[in-house]
Design goal:
This protein has 179 residues and is of the alpha+beta class. It contains 3 helices and 13 strands.
């Protein structure tokens, strides 16, 4: 029995969940998200909460039950509160050179600056020149954009230089032993 799938999804005030031909549409103060729902799953709205229901107890239905519930819950949270990922840049000369809400220019030790454009629905904040905050309402898209930025210079284990998530621990290695 899926414990995740059976939990109701509470709806904050101002959030509406509807199903339009197999697509879940969640509308809130921050925007609207759409997701194609598996055909086997169904949603029921009991006032202040939404429940995801499955047709039977087959293995595929059980796995889709929890997944669908998690996706809808993330959509509800996204349109009401939003998601953010924070990145930190470490290294001599590594920094955000220029930025706007939708684009970044990073100096990462290459002979050229790295340009990063935000897809629709994503915006950047730069509180310091060595800190980037990726914000949006779609959890998957926020994580993907943050991962794409991190791929330019993942943290290396010897000096710790590179781009890392704020809560990430980089295991350090000892350098070459001197004779």
């Amino acid at each position: 029995m899926s414990r995740v799938g059976n939990a109701p999804i509470p709806l904050p005030s101002g959030v509406a969940v509807t199903v339009e031909g197999g697509t879940v549409v969640v509308t809130g103060a921050k925007g609207t998200l759409r997701h194609r729902m598996p055909a086997e799953m169904s949603l029921s709205n009991d006032g202040g909460a939404v429940r995801v229901e499955r047709p039977d107890d087959t293995a595929s239905s059980r796995s889709l039950h929890g997944l669908t519930r998690s996706l809808v819950a993330n959509m509800v949270k996204g349109v009401s509160e939003g998601f953010s990922k924070e990145l930190r840049i470490q290294g001599v000369g590594y920094r955000v050179a220029e930025f706007t809400d939708t684009s970044l220019e990073l100096a990462l030790g290459f002979s050229h600056p790295v340009h990063v454009r935000a897809p629709e629905g994503i915006e950047f904040e730069v509180p310091q020149r060595t800190q980037i905050v990726v914000k949006g309402i779609d959890k998957q898209l926020v994580g993907q954009v943050a991962s794409d930025i991190r791929k330019w210079r993942p943290p290396e284990p010897y000096k710790g230089k590179g781009i890392r998530y704020v809560d990430e621990r980089v295991k350090r290695k000892a350098g070459k032993a001197a004779k």
